[in-house]
Amino acid sequence: MTAVEKLLGETARADAQRNVRRLVAAAREAVAEVGVDVTAHEIARRAGVGIGTFYRRLPSREALLQAVVEDTVYEIVELAREALRDPDPWHGFCTFAAEFVQLRAMSCGINEALGTDCALSLDAPLEQLREQIRLLVERCQQSGAMRDDVPWQDVPFVLTSVMTGDRTIGLTAADDQWRRNLRVVLAGLRAQQLHTSE
User: Fold this and answer.
1) How far apart, in whole angstroms, are the C-alpha atoms of residue 57 and residue 67?
2) Intervals of CATH 1.10.10 along the chain
């Protein structure tokens, strides 16, 4: 059962569950656009409900944000597990890398939660995410697809580094700048013998 499902499970009436679902959807949107410091008033406004409804249906703003962000991190864990099921280790890793970076690039709150010490308790999902990334990297290295001189712990930092600001040295980033940067990073991670054989 996901953290959001637990929130829904605490509410029996259908109309109350509809309000909780609206608040969850609004919280996801607000976390992406504003970050994890979004207020309960802003979430309620986006959901089209009053602040009283917010607090009648949910234990707290923190509980809602915890559920939304925790579930999103677990979704990233599942993306990594899917990548591990890909018969081609390098293809699986590249697919995960693109999804991981895109989510961080598109969600201010997830980027904050994964990149800083935020007030949310994410130890369990982050531990699982670290383990899945380690398995992805080691699988690629054992297959000869990825350089073996790169510790798995470096890979999350390298992937995160492809996200840029809107401008640098007077240049404006392209809309897909992170994708361009990711191509360069993946080329750098790939084992050299594969470059020369293509």
Assistant:
1) 14
2) 3-60
